[in-house]
Amino acid sequence: MKKVLCTVLSILAIALVLGVVSGTALAQDNSTYAVAYYSNANTTGAPDATVRVINDGDTGGTLCAAFYVFDDSQEMQECCSCPVTADGLISESVNNYLLANSLTSFVNHRGAIKVVSTNAPSGSCDPTKGSPTAGIRGWATHIQAAALPTGSIIRSAFAVTETPLHDANLSAAELAGLQQFCSFEIVLGSGRGTCTCGLEDHAF
Predict the structure, then answer these.
(1) pLDDT digits (tens, 9 = 90+) for 110-142
(2) Nearest Cα to Cα of residue 166 among 113, 87, 109
(3) 173-197 tens-digit pLDDT
(4) 45-59: string of b/e by CB count within 10 Å (b at 16+)?
(5) For residue 86, how many other CB atoms are within 10 A of its CB?
(6) Strands 111-118 and 136-145
(7) In the structure, how many helices (H) and strands (E) does the chain have?
(8) Closest CA to 115 of 38, 40, 184
(9) Is 170 helix (H, G, I), strand (E, B) or coil?
């Protein structure tokens, strides 16, 4: 009887371990909203920053990376939504794609970038529409002003760092606000306030 009980307990223990491992392996990352900052953009002597996003391929189809770019006064300056096919990669130049067409024509140097992973409503990407759909993952480079030794003759120096886009909580109110403000920008900007999408086969 003791041998039978020990055998049963051993089998149960193994099944429990396998279940935990299996559950962990199959866990899904359902994040749909990420944020990053940009700094020293459009600054003489500073390199350009880049935001790179991929479609992890989980849905098997095209997803949209909806970009909402803010200045350091919390005002949305540009928005756009870029298609990314399954397993595809796009690269967004901060200076030339995300900040080159600001709503106010002001040259922005620092601020926030918000990215929402959405489906493609009606078959195309639209920053004013779309339902959150997990699958877009991203990274951003940041241009940091390097500390210089006292008395250095070098007038400017910059360092480049890279971090993953930081997952954030996407409430219904936040999504509605981003899409509504973007819609206002497109109407009021008369061509300004919209950013540019990089091409998948031209990632840099």
Answers:
(1) 999 999 999 998 889 999 999 999 999 999 999
(2) 113
(3) 999 999 999 999 999 999 999 999 9
(4) ebebbbbbbbbeeee
(5) 15
(6) unpaired
(7) 2, 9
(8) 38
(9) coil
CA pair distance 114, 178, nearest whole angstrom:
9
CA atoms of 66 and 114, how far apart (whole Å): 8
Q: What is the pTM of this model?
A: 0.83
Amino acid identity for residue 108 in this structure: N
Report the first-to-last Cα separation within the chain, whole angstroms: 68
Nearest to 179, CA basis, from 83, 67, 34, 30: 67
CA dist., res. 39 & res. 185, Å (int): 23
Q: Which two tokens stand for residue 19?
A: 């279940």
138 SS3 class: strand
How are strands ordered across the β-sheet holding 158-164?
A: 89-93, 50-55, 136-145, 158-164
List, in order, residues 6 or more apart from 4 with CB less than 8 Å away.
Answer: none
